[in-house]
């Protein structure tokens, strides 16, 4: 009763207060509406991502497992690719790409293994010849060689550049509306490759960097009980004028200590030891791991023992080797690098790992 009185009285008594109240209710309403709006937008965005993963219109339809029977059977009707299932699979494994996507693009590019380029020049991927100024397709000495070259190209687009869906690849492989495509054939690329991939049993990996080639994107310190004995430096010493270049972090460790993979990834280089001229000279027993999530590489040098092989997928924290003092090393330690490129582009791991280091 008292309340109703209050409500009846106040409007006449104080318009200002009412307006204020009204305003604050409005502000609250607006905030709520905004919040709901943003959530709805989030759902929409989430929804479209979801659609992408479900493979509508050339997105990422990942069934997970390769159905080898379907895969090989489908290749039976594929011209020169008949019986090449194992070759597709082994090259795909080597390059950390999806054999289904690899084969689907090869079918699309070659009219199911019947094009002149693949029949006469063993070229399934439309790779142009730099010797002719890219005016003709390159000739390979065998179909295997041509497929391997295509595998490397796809690895660079999918793993290195991160084009993890058919759509993203299509925008690069077959851009719509370009001058060299007057009949607009490129518009068919995405739906064609998608349909062929489905025939092969559906994509199995690479989409949005899923699988062990992806990783968490956040590196862990690659040794237990870390003690940094030498930091990262890449500078001209202002006093001595000498170029100081130590493009990694050194963790002093007893010989035989465990070395841990900094993140999920794929082993791309193992040398026991690295020889000069290999690009890894001086590192002794060295391992390089490619991380799909960050599109980066981590390097582990001077090991006494390496426990992984090239092509092997590793998990974050997995013991991949043992600390040693091989190569150009003055004492047992792990030399650890984070690289933006496979062959270089080192960055200081200290801030990334959150460890203190002075150079
Ligand atoms: Zn070092």
UniProtKB/TrEMBL annotation:
Alphabetically ordered keywords of this record: Membrane, Transmembrane, Transmembrane helix
InterPro entries: Cell_wall_metabolism_enzyme, Dup_hybrid_motif, M23ase_b-sheet_dom, MGlyc_endo_b_GlcNAc-like_dom
CDD domains membership: M23_peptidase
UniProt GO molecular function: amidase activity; metalloendopeptidase activity
Keyword field contains Transmembrane helix: yes
Residues passing through the membrane, by range: 20-45
Domain annotation Mannosyl-glycoprotein endo-beta-N-acetylglucosamidase-like: ranges: 86-157
Coiled coil (UniProt feature): none
Keyword Membrane: yes
Pfam family, one: Peptidase_M23
Annotated SUPFAM superfamilies: Duplicated hybrid motif
Species, as recorded: Listeria aquatica FSL S10-1188
UniProt domain M23ase beta-sheet core: residue ranges: 245-349
Name of the molecule in the record: Peptidase family M23 protein
Domain of life: Bacteria
């Amino acid at each position: 009763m008292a309340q109703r009185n209050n409500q009846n009285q106040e409007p006449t008594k104080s318009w200002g207060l009412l307006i204020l109240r009204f305003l604050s209710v409005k502000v609250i309403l607006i905030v709520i509406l905004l919040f709901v709006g943003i959530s709805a937008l989030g759902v929409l965005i989430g929804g479209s991502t979801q659609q992408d993963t479900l493979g509508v219109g050339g997105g990422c339809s990942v069934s997970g497992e390769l159905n080898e029977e379907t895969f090989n059977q489908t290749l039976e009707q594929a011209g020169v690719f008949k019986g090449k299932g194992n070759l597709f699979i082994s090259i795909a494994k080597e390059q950390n790409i999806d054999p289904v996507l690899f084969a689907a693009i090869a079918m699309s590019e070659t009219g199911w293994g019947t094009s002149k380029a693949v029949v006469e020049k063993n070229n399934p991927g439309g790779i142009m010849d730099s010797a002719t100024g890219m005016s003709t397709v390159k000739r390979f000495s065998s179909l295997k060689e041509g497929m391997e070259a295509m595998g490397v190209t796809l690895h660079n687009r999918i793993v290195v550049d991160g084009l993890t869906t058919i759509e993203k690849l299509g925008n690069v492989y077959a851009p719509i509306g370009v001058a060299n495509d007057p009949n607009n054939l490129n518009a068919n690329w995405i739906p064609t490759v998608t349909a062929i991939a489905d025939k092969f049993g559906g994509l199995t990996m690479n989409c949005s960097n899923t699988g062990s080639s992806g990783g968490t994107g956040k590196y862990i310190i690659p040794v237990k009980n870390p003690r940094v004995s030498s930091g990262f430096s890449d500078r001209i010493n202002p006093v001595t004028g000498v170029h100081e270049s130590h493009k990694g972090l050194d963790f002093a460790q007893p010989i035989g200590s465990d070395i841990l993979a900094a993140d999920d990834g794929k082993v791309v280089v193992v040398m026991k030891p690295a020889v000069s001229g290999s690009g890894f000279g001086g590192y002794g027993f060295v391992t390089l791991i490619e991380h799909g999530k960050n599109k980066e590489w981590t390097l582990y040098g001077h090991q006494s023992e390496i426990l992984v092989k090239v092509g092997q997928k590793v998990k974050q924290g997995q013991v991949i080797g043992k600390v040693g003092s091989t190569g150009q090393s003055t004492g047992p330690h792990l030399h650890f690098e984070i690289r933006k490129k496979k062959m270089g582009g080192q960055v200081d791991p200290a801030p990334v790992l959150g460890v203190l280091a002075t150079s």
